[in-house]
Each structure stands twice: as C-alpha cells, then as structure tokens.
Amino acid sequence: MSQVKGRKMKRILYLITALSLILTSLLSCSASLTEAETLSAEERVSVERETVPEKRDPNGFSAGFSRVVINPKSSVGMAGYGNTEFRRSTIIEDDLTVSCTAVSDGENTALLFSLDVIGLSEQNCENIYRQIEKSLGIKSEYVILNATHCHSGPDVASSSDDSIANYLKIFYPAVLKAAKDAVADLDRCEMKIARTETHELNYVRRCFKADGSLIADCVINLSKEPVVRHETDADEQIQLLMFDRVNGKDILLMNWQCHVTAASGREKTVISPDYVGALREKMEKEADVHFAFHQGAGANIEPNSYIESEPDNRDYKNHGSKIADVALKALENMEAVSSGKVRAAKKTVSCAHDLDVSAYNLQEAQQITDLKNANNFDKAKTLCIQYGYNSPYHAAAVVSRSKRTSTATELDIS
C-alpha cells in the first residue's frame, strides 16, 4: 500500500512542479543579460552560507513556509494581454507576494516558489538561482520557480524598462528572503494529498465557428462571430498537497490551471494578484493553513468570468472564492502518504505545437519581438503589417515556438 501511495505522491508532485515549470518557461520571454538585470554587489544581499537551522531533524522529513510582499514602490511597466500596448501601474489594490515552501529530508532541501508575476526570463531565474546557492547552498535543480501568470503585475522579464530595473532591486532580495525564512521555518511533518474538480470555472479559449474555422482566442461575450463549440474541454482538476506539521501551521499547495485574467475587465493599470489573491486569502482564513497556488498548464484556459460577466464588471474576488469553496470541501477527504527522500533531476522535453514556424521568416519575427520587448509598439505594429503578422505577440510566438525544447525539473519527494 505504501508503494502505491508513493507512486501517487510522485505523480502529483511531478504535475505541481514539472508541468508548471514547462508552462512558466513557455510563457516567459527570453531576455538577454543586461546591466539593468544584473545585480551589483551593493544590490545583492551579502550573506555567508548559513548553517542548518537547529529545529531541523536530520532523521526526519520537514517543511517550512514563508511569504514576502513584492509590491513596486513606484509606477512600473506591466505585463500581460499580449503586450500589445505599454501599460504603467497607477495603484496597488492587493499585495503581490512571493511564497516559498521549503521541503527537506535532512540531507537535501528543495524550494518551491509561487510568485505573483506573469513569468520569468532565463536571466531572472539565473539571478535567483545564483543568490540562493550562494546564501543557502541549495543548487538550482532543487529550486522550483512557478509564476502564477498574473497579468496585473510588473513585467519582470523586460530588459529595457528603467522602472523594471529599479523594481528588480526589490524583487530579487525579496525572493531570497522568502527562501531563507522558509528554510528557517522547517518543522517535522507528514504529507497528505487530495484531488477534486471545479465545474465551469474555466474554459478553453480556442473555439470553432460554424464554417469549421478556428478562433484562436475567442472571448465569448465579446466575440461578434457565432461560436459552435470549444476545441476541447478545460482541465478542471485540482490537486492538493498538505504538509501536516508537528508544531508550525500546516502548509497547503494547490495545483490548478487557468489564466490569471479574471480582473481584465477593470482598469488594466491596477496592481493585483487577481483571483489567486482572493483564493489564497479564503483558503488561509477558513483552513487555517499557509497556502500557495502553483499554476498548471493553462496557456489556452481562461477564467469563466469572461462568459458570466460584462467586460467591465468581472468579479475576480468572487471567482477566487468559488475555487476556494471547491478546494476546501476536498480537504475533508485528504489521504496520508509516506514521505521519503528529496531528489531532483533535470530533463529536456520536446514541446509540440500547431504553429508551422517554417512558413515565417524568423529574422523578421525576431526583429518585431525585439521592438516589442523594448516597448516600441508603434514600430513593431508597423513591421507586423509589412511582414504579415497579426500582432507583435504573434511574432513573439513564432520566435518562442521555433525553439521546440524546454528544460524542466522533476522533483520527487515520495
């Protein structure tokens, strides 16, 4: 029985980590190394490698948790919605945060991050990996960086926006602090798992029209074209992993898959974690746990607030509350599983897609993408017309999908 439970645990952790990493890497924009993103010695948090916290039991399985607010201190360039126009934040409505869960078997320690950002560039990740290894001695293969894919936060992957360069001076130290505090919070624990499903809280945005043609990004209540059916059903599965701790508050990780765009009908310059923030708040209040949301493979899955509400009146907090109601009910049927070693391995995976990039000139697509990343949307749109692209985002998709492989980390704590 323990072997069966171990296999269940491995499958669930693989989904929470490997699939979410693949999604994050696909949705992130690759950014070149620039002075803006490279931390100076003064900007880095200089901490000597720390000793193992006294409360860690070298013979036991333990978990720790920390959360740090990552709000910008001033107006910043924002990410999301195809980056078809340059947006700057005007107000902070709800806190953006980075949550870190540390898991240790006494020998190896892994860090699972949930960050309220749209995605991370390769350089973002490398900076975080480097600081964590320097400070805590934890290598990159034991660090999982999961972006919630929030469309209402800073564009941390931007390589040309001065406001982001300043924001990263807050962001990187906050991520490192979350890691250090989570490790310091390690406490003996047991693991429990549960699965459930939402119903009609998300949908696949790819739809077929009556003539059989496909609408790649249909928003039902905004579309003027009649839609016959969605391309497929949305993945509605919720997976829950509980670290039931001896002394500290329990830690609950949740894996679900859906774009974080339920607040998109409101003013798009408001800083907010969207429905994830409301979900997190309700889970922590009613279940009395530390809670972290880990995004799944939701690239073409949207929140159903698009369908139920008017474009300018989407209730993202109510949407998060509805998801929480489903997850809270599942907590009544959690199943204990055995814990074992913390192990990690990197794999290169092939990412299939239906966009034939051979039909495009990659040099032209890269040119448009570079302009988009530099926030020069007017010129990027002009070249889109000249070269035959629908939008700068279309060109960026061609560039990203020309690279058919991605590196993912599999973390096994079964």
Question: Can you give keywords for this protein?
Answer:
414 residues, alpha+beta, three-stranded antiparallel beta sheet, 31% helix
Question: What can you see in these coordinates?
Answer:
- With 414 residues, the protein is an alpha+beta fold.
- Helices cover 31% and strands 24% of the residues.
- It has nine helices and 18 strands.
- It has helices spanning 2-27, 122-136, 162-184, 275-287, 305-308, 316-330, 362-373, 377-387, 392-401; strands spanning 62-69, 91-92, 97-104, 109-115, 143-147, 187-197, 202-204, 207-209, 214-215, 227-230, 237-245, 251-256, 270-271, 290-295, 301-303, 335-337, 343-350, 405-412.
- Strands 1, 3, 4, 5, 6, 11, 12, 14 and 16 form a nine-stranded mixed β-sheet that branches. The protein has a three-stranded antiparallel β-sheet with strand order 9-8-10, with no helix packed on it.
- Residues 1-58 have low confidence and may be disordered.
SS-based structural class? alpha+beta
> What does the overall shape look like?
globular
What is the gyration radius calculated from CA atoms? 21 Å
Strand content: 15-25%
- Overall average pLDDT: 79
- Count the strands? 18
